[in-house]
């Protein structure tokens, strides 16, 4: 069933596609973390003009399928606002803005997990909101969020396969090219799946080590 | 174990660092996006003049359709259409830049002006002609019915009513099966190879697909056969945006020149052997 000649022949081509996958995932994660942190703070703000748009954004991004979002950003948006986006740009924006909604909720959970007594203690020492956040809340919140955030990385790693639909040349798209060239579907797909396993297991391993370093022990 | 976040990286610094990264990414994307925005700026000039000014034409293809357009071992997009498009570029005096799309994304890409033309084995149909402008035909193709090698019931397109047929979304196979055949259950797939995989596992009884591709597929996967006559003779054309009449005229002139000069036969022989 497996064409071993094709397997080893196509492997370097597909592995280089995996590098594109890692690159897309890394940039999207960065964007979603930054945006997510801002959203989380806005979401928890007492000011409605911050809180309401944040909630609306999070609900929207979690409600629309990522595939639909990517197709929309790549095909429907450019004619409307007049900017042409490459598959790469559309992919990062789609993955990043969607991931930000999930990351925001992760951060919010982390922030809420810090015992309120600490915030009261900080305030009684005369610390302002931002000082409290900076010194007391966020360091603990971020540490607690790490397991969920590593999960988000793995999710984005797999979700990045969707950008193949808008023509981004990453691992899955390269797999499709090999299928079209060789008329063999089994071997290329097997190879793609294996490479994804290596990426996700590898990520899990590295990120688990990071988690241990950041734990309270 | 020292907690890195607690000791060395305060919450605010982390946030600042993340914000700077995000800003940098968005800025880079903005620059990349603006770099792509070179089309449709001055309408009165006409796309052809604009193309010749910038020195290249963008061609949208779906490189999953050997031997017309596909990706070879070294990762380059090659094929019959690609060679023809490059000849066309020589006629127009510009470089041809090929971009990859999913098949059902080709016409949206053209309509959204992501590419200047689509030279990707698209059959000329009245419905498509409502959304895009077609050039003169450059290839004549047929559809055929593919079944498993041990199939006995289906001997041709007329035996399909009452059966389940696999097609690729948006292809003429899809249109024929949906609109012209009575009582056929149509299963649509995004990838060209997918209907064949479905046939292999018995999910559909037959596949309707362009003949050149079917013949190549069967050569590599002997478990299938073509049954009945080839039908639905159709012609492929190059697509441009409905507004770009000047480009269309230039493409037609170019195609005529390529046929007259013998280059067409040369490229045909290269990809289809001796016909």
Salient structural properties:
heterodimer; A: 217 residues; mainly alpha; flat; B: 275 residues; alpha/beta; D-Maltodextrin-Binding Protein, domain 2; 2 domains; nine-stranded mixed β-sheet; three-stranded antiparallel β-sheet; 11 helices; 12 strands; globular; disordered N terminus
Short description:
The complex is a heterodimer of chains A (217) and B (275). Chain A is mainly alpha-helical.
Task: Give a verbal description of the structure.
Chain A has 217 residues and is an all-alpha fold. Chain A has a single domain (4-214), classed as MetI-like fold (Orthogonal Bundle), CATH 1.10.3720.10. Chain A has eight helices and no strands. In chain A, α1 packs antiparallel against α2 (48-63), α1 crosses α8 (186-214) and α4 (87-112) packs across α6. The longest helix of chain A is centred in the first third of the chain and has 40 residues, at 4-43. Chain B has two domains: 45-140 and 235-272, D-Maltodextrin-Binding Protein, domain 2 (3-Layer(aba) Sandwich), CATH 3.40.190; 141-234, 3-Layer(aba) Sandwich (D-Maltodextrin-Binding Protein, domain 2). Chain B contains eleven helices and twelve strands. Chain B has helices at 4-7, 11-36, 47-54, 80-92, 106-111, 126-129, 172-180, 194-200, 211-220, 245-260, 263-272; strands at residues 56-61, 64-65, 69-71, 77-78, 95-100, 117-123, 132-134, 139-148, 164-168, 185-189, 206-210, 224-241. In chain B, strands 1, 5, 6, 7, 8, 9, 10, 11 and 12 form a nine-stranded mixed β-sheet that branches. A three-stranded antiparallel β-sheet of chain B has the order 2-3-4, covered by helices on one side. In chain B, α4 (80-92) crosses α10 (245-260) and α4 packs antiparallel against α11 (263-272). The model of chain B is unreliable at 1-9 and 35-42 (pLDDT under 50). At the A-B interface, α1, α3, α4, α6 and α7 of A face α1, α2, β2, α5 and α9 of B.
């Amino acid at each position: 069933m497996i064409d071993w000649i094709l397997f080893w022949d196509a492997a370097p081509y597909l592995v280089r596609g995996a590098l594109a996958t890692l690159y897309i995932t890394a940039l999207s994660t960065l964007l979603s973390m930054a945006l997510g942190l801002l959203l989380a703070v806005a979401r928890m703000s007492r000011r409605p003009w911050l809180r309401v748009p944040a909630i609306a954004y999070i609900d929207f991004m979690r409600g629309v399928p990522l595939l639909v979002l990517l197709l929309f950003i790549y095909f429907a948006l450019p004619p409307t606002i007049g900017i042409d986006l490459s598959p790469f740009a559309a992919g990062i924006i789609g993955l990043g803005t969607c991931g930000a909604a999930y990351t925001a909720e992760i951060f919010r959970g982390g922030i809420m997990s810090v015992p309120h007594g600490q915030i009261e203690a900080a305030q009684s020492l005369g610390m302002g909101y931002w000082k409290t956040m900076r010194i007391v809340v966020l360091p603990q919140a971020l540490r607690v969020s790490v397991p969920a955030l590593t999960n988000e990385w793995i999710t984005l790693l797999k979700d990045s396969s969707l950008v193949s639909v808008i023509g981004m040349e990453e691992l899955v798209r390269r797999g499709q090219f090999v299928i079209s060239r060789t008329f063999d579907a089994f071997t290329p797909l097997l190879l793609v799946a294996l490479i994804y396993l290596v990426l996700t297991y590898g990520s899990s391993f590295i990120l688990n080590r990071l988690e241990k370093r950041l734990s309270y022990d | 174990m020292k907690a890195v976040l607690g000791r060395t990286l305060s919450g605010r610094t982390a946030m600042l660092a993340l914000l700077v990264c995000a800003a940098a990414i968005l800025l880079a994307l903005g620059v990349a996006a603006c770099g792509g925005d070179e089309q449709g700026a001055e309408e009165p000039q006409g796309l052809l003049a604009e193309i010749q000014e910038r020195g290249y034409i963008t061609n949208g293809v779906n490189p999953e359709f050997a031997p017309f357009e596909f990706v070879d071992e070294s990762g380059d997009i090659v094929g019959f259409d690609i060679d023809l498009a490059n000849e066309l570029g020589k006629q127009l005096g510009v470089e041809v830049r090929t971009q990859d799309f999913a098949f059902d994304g080709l016409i949206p890409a053209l309509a959204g002006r992501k590419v200047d033309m689509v030279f990707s084995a698209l059959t000329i149909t009245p419905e498509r002609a409502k959304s895009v402008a077609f050039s003169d035909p450059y290839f004549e193709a047929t559809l055929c019915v593919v079944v498993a090698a041990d199939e006995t019931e289906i001997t041709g397109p007329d035996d399909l009513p009452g059966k389940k047929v696999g097609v690729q979304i948006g292809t003429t196979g899809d249109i024929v099966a949906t609109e012209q055949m009575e009582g056929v259950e149509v299963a649509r797939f995004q990838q060209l190879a997918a209907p064949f995989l479905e046939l292999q596992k018995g999910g559909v009884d037959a596949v309707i697909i362009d003949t050149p591709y079917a013949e190549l597929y069967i050569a590599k996967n002997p478990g299938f056969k073509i049954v009945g006559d080839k039908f639905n003779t159709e012609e492929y054309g190059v697509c441009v945006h409905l507004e770009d009449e000047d480009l269309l005229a230039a493409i037609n002139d170019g195609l005529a020149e390529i046929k007259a000069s013998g280059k067409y036969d040369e490229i045909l022989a290269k990809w289809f052997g001796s016909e």
